[in-house]
């Protein structure tokens, strides 16, 4: 089974309000904001951007999330460097992380089968 393209870009920032405004200036619309300094923005039908604020002592990071239609159908014997296997998330999906040959970590996200 293959991935179906980019699902999302997760960003951490030291100021989610400024980051959200930056993306809104680029045409993204605020889809929802949380009460803990994070927000999801979308521009059309493409990948969404999720911005979350982290403390000043943490380095802001970017994580690209690839879409998987069904975590249970994903081949368990795939030749991947699995960092974490598929696990349920607190935001209603299942997520797996893998490392590419150059050491970058990628997330694979699938709907949770409840």
Automatic annotation (TrEMBL):
Gene3D superfamilies given in the database record: 2,3-Dihydroxybiphenyl 1,2-Dioxygenase, domain 1 (3.10.180.10)
Domain of life, source organism: Bacteria
Protein name: Glyoxalase
Organism, scientific name: Streptomyces crystallinus
